[in-house]
C-alpha cells in the first residue's frame, strides 16, 4: 500500500509546526493530525508569555549583561542535577541546546521575523552557590508578540507548505495507535471526533464519528505533556516533593492529557524521567476561566513577603522568583496546598506580571503605545482586574481585617495575627536600614543593581506596613500544573529509543513529549525561557533528520 505522506506529525503545537515546516522546506509531504479544532492551532505556545532563553544576546549586551556559553552551561548543569544512567541523552541534548542558544538560535529566529522586548527578564535567580540552581544573569527574552509572536513565523511557513501541497492539517483526529510493518513504525490510526466550534482552550466534544488510518515512512510525536491530567500528575508525583496536592489548578487545557505517551510506549518507546515535572507555586484562579481550573501564574519581582498557610515566612533563599521547585518542595512539607504573598499596592503595581499572552495585551498586540500607557498607569489593567475580581486576592488598609480575611479564605485560625505582624515588622526594620541582615532585602537591592529590574521590575525598598504604599494586599497562591520535564527518550536526531537503547525505526518525538529533547534535557530543574526554545530546537532537529531519512 502506498504512503499517504512521507511523515505524519501527531500534534499541531509549536514543536509539531516547526518539524512540519522543516520537512516542507526539504520537499517532504507531511500530514499533521490534531485532536482539537483548528481554533487550537499552535497549542500551548499560544498562551505563553513568549520567553526565550538566549545566551550573550544583543539585548543582554545593550544592558551591560555579561553572559557566555561557559556561564550558561554552569547554570544549566548546576540546575539540572543529572544523576541517572538514563540521563545520557538528556545531557547530550542539554549541551546541544546550549550551543544553539549561544549561537544560531537568535539569528535563525530573527531571520524569520521574530523580535524581542528590549528589557531582558531575570527568572529563576537561584540564591545558592555559583554551581547550584539558577540563572547567574538575566536571560529571559520576551518575544515581541508573546506566545503568538513565537508561533507567527512557523504558522506562516506551515501555511506556505499547505499552499504548495506539502502540508495537510487534519483536525479532530485523535491517534490511538501506531502501526508497524516489519518492525518499523509506518503510520497512525485512531478516531475521528465530531466537529466542534469550541474556542481555543475550551473543552471540545469527544463524540467519535469514525476512524482513520494514515500510512507514512515516519511518525513524529508532538503531542505535549500531562499537565491537564491531574490524575496522571499525581501518579508520577516524586516523593522528593512530598505528597501530591489534593487541590491543584491547571496552567494548560484539559486535553493536555499525556495519552499519546502511552501509545508510543506501547509501540516500544522508552519513557523516562516521568517524576521530573515543573509546577508553579504562584498560581491564582483565573477570574475569567477558559478551561477547567484555569489558573494564571504571577511572575513576581523579589519584594513580596512569602508565607506558608500558617503564616510562617519561607526560609532563605525561597524568595519570589528564585527557586520554583525548591519552594514547591518546602511548601509540600507544610501539609497545605496553598501559601501567601503579603505585600503592598506599590509592590503589586511595579512587580506583578501575569504569565500568558492574554494577560499582556500590550506585548501580545505589539503596541508600544500600550506599553508606555501601561508604564504610566501605575497598575497594569490585567493586574487591577485580579485585584478587583480575583477570588485569591485580598485588599485591605487595616492589618487585622486583612488577617481575618486570610483566615476566612485559607482556613479558620491558621494564621496568628501577632505572629504575622512581628515577622513583617522585623523585615520592615531592615528595609529602612542601609546595612541590615535580611537576605531578601539584600537580594532586592542586588536586583536593583540591574538596570532592567530597576526600571520596570522591582519597587524601591520600603516598609510593607507603610500606609503611604498601601493598601495591603494578600494573595492566596495555589499549585499550578504546567510542564513535564521527562518524556520519550530520543537521540540527537530526535529518533525515539527503545528499552534496548536502539532507535524504534520510523518513530521520532519532539517538544514536551520528549522532555524537550532526549527525554528530559532540563534534568530536575529548568532555567525558564527554555520550554518554547526546547520545542523549537527539537522540532527543527526532527524535521531535518526526518527529511533525510525518508525517500
UniProtKB/TrEMBL annotation:
InterPro entries: FAD-dep_OxRdtase_2_FAD-bd (IPR003953), FAD/NAD-bd_sf (IPR036188), KsdD_DH (IPR014614), Succ_DH/fumarate_Rdtase_cat_sf (IPR027477). Residues 6-532 form the FAD-dependent oxidoreductase 2 FAD-binding domain. Its cofactor is FAD. SUPFAM superfamilies: FAD/NAD(P)-binding domain (SSF51905). It comes from the Bacteria. Keywords: Flavoprotein, Oxidoreductase. NCBIfam families: PRK12834.1 (NF009472). This is FAD-binding dehydrogenase. It comes from Bosea rubneri.
Amino acid at each position: 500500500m502506498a504512503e499517504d505522506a512521507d511523515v505524519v506529525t501527531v500534534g499541531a503545537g509549536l514543536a509539531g509546526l516547526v518539524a512540519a515546516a522543516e520537512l516542507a522546506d526539504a520537499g517532504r509531504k507531511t500530514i499533521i493530525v490534531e485532536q482539537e479544532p483548528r481554533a487550537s492551532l499552535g497549542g500551548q505556545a499560544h498562551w505563553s508569555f513568549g520567553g526565550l532563553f538566549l545566551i550573550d544576546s544583543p539585548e543582554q549586551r545593550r544592558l551591560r549583561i555579561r553572559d557566555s556559553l561557559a556561564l550558561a552551561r554552569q547554570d544549566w548543569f548546576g540546575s539540572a542535577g543529572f544523576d541517572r544512567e538514563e540521563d545520557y541523552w538528556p545531557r547530550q541534548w542539554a549541551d546541544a541546546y546550549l550551543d544553539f542558544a549561544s549561537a544560531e538560535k537568535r539569528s535563525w529566529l530573527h531571520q524569520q521575523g521574530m523580535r524581542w522586548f528590549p528589557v531582558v527578564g531575570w527568572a529563576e535567580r537561584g540564591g545558592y552557590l555559583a554551581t547550584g540552581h539558577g540563572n547567574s544573569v538575566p536571560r529571559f527574552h520576551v518575544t515581541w508578540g508573546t506566545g503568538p509572536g513565537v508561533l507567527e513565523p512557523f504558522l506562516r511557513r506551515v501555511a506556505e507548505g499547505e499552499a504548495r501541497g506539502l502540508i495537510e492539517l487534519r483536525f479532530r483526529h485523535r491517534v490511538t495507535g501506531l502501526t508497524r510493518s516489519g518492525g518499523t513504525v509506518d503510520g497512525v490510526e485512531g478516531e475521528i471526533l465530531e466537529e466542534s466550534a469550541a474556542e481555543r482552550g475550551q473543552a471540545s466534544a469527544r463524540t467519535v464519528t469514525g476512524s482513520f488510518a494514515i500510512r507514512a515512512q515516519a511518525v513524529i510525536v508532538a503531542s505535549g505533556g500531562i499537565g491537564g491530567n491531574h490524575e496522571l500528575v499525581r501518579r508520577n508525583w516524586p516523593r522528593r516533593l512530598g505528597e501530591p496536592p489534593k487541590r491543584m489548578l491547571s496552567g494548560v487545557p484539559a486535553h493536555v492529557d499525556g495519552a499519546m505517551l502511552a501509545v508510543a510506549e506501547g509501540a516500544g518507546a522508552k519513557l523516562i524521567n516521568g517524576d521530573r515535572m515543573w509546577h508553579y507555586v504562584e498560581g491564582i484562579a483565573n477570574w475569567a476561566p477558559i478551561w477547567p481550573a484555569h489558573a494564571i501564574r504571577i511572575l513576581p519581582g523579589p519584594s513580596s513577603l512569602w508565607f506558608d498557610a500558617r503564616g510562617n515566612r519561607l526560609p532563605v533563599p525561597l524568595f519570589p522568583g528564585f527557586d520554583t521547585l525548591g519552594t514547591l518542595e518546602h511548601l509540600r512539607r507544610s501539609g497545605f496546598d496553598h501559601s501567601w504573598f503579603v505585600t503592598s499596592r506599590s509592590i503589586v503595581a511595579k512587580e506583578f506580571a501575569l504569565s500568558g499572552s492574554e494577560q499582556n495585551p500590550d506585548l501580545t498586540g505589539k503596541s508600544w503605545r500600550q506599553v508606555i500607557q501601561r508604564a504610566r498607569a501605575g497598575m497594569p489593567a490585567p493586574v487591577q482586574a485580579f485585584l478587583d475580581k480575583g477570588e485569591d486576592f485580598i485588599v485591605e488598609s487595616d492589618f487585622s481585617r486583612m488577617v481575618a480575611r486570610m483566615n476566612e479564605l485559607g482556613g479558620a485560625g491558621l494564621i496568628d495575627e501577632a505572629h504575622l505582624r512581628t515577622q513583617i515588622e522585623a523585615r520592615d526594620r531592615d528595609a529602612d536600614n542601609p546595612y541590615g541582615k535580611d537576605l531578601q532585602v539584600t537580594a532586592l537591592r542586588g536586583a536593583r543593581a540591574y538596570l532592567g529590574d530597576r526600571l520596570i521590575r522591582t519597587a524601591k525598598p520600603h516598609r510593607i506596613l507603610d500606609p503611604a504604599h498601601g493598601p495591603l494586599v494578600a494573595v492566596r497562591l495555589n499549585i499550578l500544573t504546567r510542564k513535564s520535564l521527562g518524556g520519550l527518550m530520543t537521540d540527537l536526531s530526535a529518533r525515539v529509543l527503545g528499552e534496548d537503547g536502539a532507535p524504534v525505526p520510523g518513530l521520532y518525538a519532539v517538544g514536551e513529549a520528549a522532555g524537550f529533547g532526549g527525554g528530559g534535557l532540563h534534568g530536575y530543574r529548568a532555567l525558564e525561557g527554555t520550554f518554547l526554545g526546547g520545542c523549537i530546537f527539537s522540532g527543527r532537529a526532527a524535521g531535518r533528520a526526518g527529511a533525510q531519512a525518508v525517500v
